[in-house]
Specification:
Number of domains: 1
Number of helices: 10
Order of helices and strands: HHHHHHEEHHHEEEEEH
Bound molecules: zinc ion
Radius of gyration: 19 Å
Largest sheet: 3 strands, antiparallel
Distance between the termini: 36 Å
Length: 291
């Protein structure tokens, strides 16, 4: 019970601060409190910690050099103030994986979770830092130069940011597994049992180099999936004023018109599918290293 209270207090303090600072909407704050409480209460500091690393680093990055990014922010659905939909698109799958681990403890859940968090972290870092690139981005499918802010546009700076973000998750996972005594549930006994399971089954995968590989490969693959979906089937709108293809329903102070993509393939759906891709890559790598 105390475990749940600690989780709730920690999540409420951080989400409340993010709300006051304008990084979360009211619905986003409430979703983040629920999610954080479950991650810590049902899971452990490991699950809560990785979510926190993503949340804090992406919030700080989005505030860094904000003036230079302001124009681009209006074309992206993923930056700025996160609402409940975005919070669940970023952390909902991770929460299911955490609950999966609690019900049936197995290191495979941990590998998948690392890949999922690496994907959302890589995607955010790539968007935030890539937008600062002085060179124009290139279209992910053709390599042709495209205007800044184009969905599916990638840059060298953004790609390096994606790799660094994945490594950051891998390193954090290693630190949390070292400090927190594994990924286990709320009882002391199951914590040490979980650590034993991890070390026994996945020794190769939970070494520092193994976790760096899981994080960077999972994150990079997930961010790439995000770009490819953004370049092809993501639902996009066209601004009636400036003519740019954007993810949002409003641009240049006017309502945009539907331009292309599948009706249901919203930015949140793209994030979710990319997370599945990143999670599966990390799961496969962890399974290969651990067996
Ligand atoms: Zn416009």
């Amino acid at each position: 019970m105390l475990h749940w209270l600690i989780g709730f207090a920690g999540a409420a303090a951080i989400a409340g601060l993010a709300y006051l600072k304008g990084s979360l909407s009211l619905s986003g704050m409430m979703s983040a409190v629920i999610m954080g409480t479950i991650f810590y209460g049902a899971g452990s500091a490991f699950w809560f910690g990785l979510l926190l690393v993503f949340f804090i680093s992406s919030t700080l990055l989005s505030r860094w050099k904000k003036e230079r990014k302001h124009e681009l922010e209006q074309s992206y659905a993923k930056t700025g103030r996160r609402d409940a939909g975005q919070v669940f698109a970023n952390g909902g799958l991770g929460m299911l994986v955490c609950l999966g681990y609690v019900i049936a403890p197995d290191p495979l859940w941990i590998y998948a979770y690392i890949g999922i968090m690496a994907t959302v972290n890589s995607d955010t870092w790539a968007t935030e830092l890539g937008s600062l690139s002085r060179k124009p981005p290139r279209f992910v499918l053709t390599g042709r130069v495209v205007p800044k802010g184009t969905s599916g546009g990638v840059s060298l700076l953004g790609s390096c940011a994606a790799l660094a973000a994945g490594c950051c998750i891998g390193l954090s996972a290693w630190l949390l597994l070292q400090l927190g005594g594994g990924a286990g549930g709320s009882q002391g006994a199951s914590i040490s049992a979980a650590t034993d399971t991890v070390t026994a089954i996945g020794a190769g995968a939970v070494s520092l180099p193994g976790l760096l590989l899981l994080g960077s490969a999972g994150g990079f693959a997930g961010a790439l999936a995000d770009s490819v979906l953004g370049a092809t089937v993501q639902k996009m709108y066209r601004c009636r004023v400036c003519g740019q293809l954007v993810e949002v329903k409003q641009h240049c102070g006017q309502l945009t018109e539907r331009a292309r993509g599948w009706r249901w393939m919203t930015n949140d759906a793209v994030n979710l599918i990319s997370s599945v891709a990143g999670g599966l890559i990390a799961l496969w790598l962890g399974w290969s290293l651990g067996s």
